[in-house]
Amino acid sequence: MSFVIDINQDQFVEKVVEQSKTIPVIVDFWAPWCGPCKQLTPILENLVNKKNGKVILAKINVDENQGIASQLNIQSIPTVYGFVDGKPIDAFQGAQPESKIEIMIDKLIDATPGNEVPKLLSEAENLFKDQRFQEAQQLYETLVGMDPGNIKVISGLLRCLVQLKKYDDAKEMMGSLDDETLKNEEIIKINKLLFSLGDSGDNDINELKSLVNDQPNNKEKRFELAEKYLSVNETENGFNELLIIYEQDPKWNDEAAKKKLLEYFDMLGLTDPNVISARKQLSKLMFK
Question: Given strand 25-30, what is the order of strands in its sheet?
């Protein structure tokens, strides 16, 4: 089955209204003389083909189908409508950034009747926030089977593996991803995080802990201890040490503590439980 089709107004009810009751349909109103259409349509086609059957693109030449264009009050082109369950639920006019169009397409897919993925994804995300990482992993693995190309599912599973310190599994999964997925901003952050983790050795950490206990104002050694904690995925401990440094002297070493915190906030993501807690503490210290 082709995911991109050209239709006329006589086919609109069958190919758009009725079809959208089972699969979302994007309708692209265009014309041969329209410059922006020539930019937009290839983007739509590429995004729809990437979804591999979860959405259909129906293209309508308005010059040859003025009746349906009039019925839908198409006043300028390109105009794009998104149909779900027989009704238009979203639309835009003019050329748009690819990222914005993909957000719209994902919204249409999520709204498809009978689609359980959004509900299960929300459950998995809540399990992750509650630090029930093993349960979250199991649910994400179920979701991979249901929606294998969903970036939220892929990134959620990878983050669970990182939290559970299953680094080899995470690296193996990362190695199985296609080039397009590896270019995703969220996946890039997780990859960076994954390769920042390793085994620093308990002896190194214990020695630094002892030294910092004896010299609580030694920011260099406390910062080193924070980095050791972070490198072995002891995130809470690492953040706590950095927050102590920031409270002692926010400007120390060109704001090194704050910069390190923000670096890991970005890599871990704003839904990470340790990030949520540390951001609140940092805000209190910044604005007290």
Answer: 4-6, 56-61, 25-30, 79-84, 87-93
Burial 19-58 (b: 16+ CB within 10 A, else e): bbeebbbbbbbbeeebeebeebbeebeebbeebeebbbbb
Full-model pTM: 0.77
Distance CA 227, CA 234 (A): 10
Look up tokens 């709204």; give the residue.
Answer: 111
d(CA 41, CA 62): 14
Task: Write down all domains in the chain, each with its CATH number in brackets.
Answer: 4-110 (3.40.30.10), 117-194 (1.25.40.10), 202-287 (1.25.40)
pLDDT tens-digit readout, 15-41: 999 999 999 999 999 999 999 999 999
Report the 10 Å Cβ neighbour count for 255: 14
Averaged pLDDT of the chain: 93
Enumerate the active-site residues. 34, 37
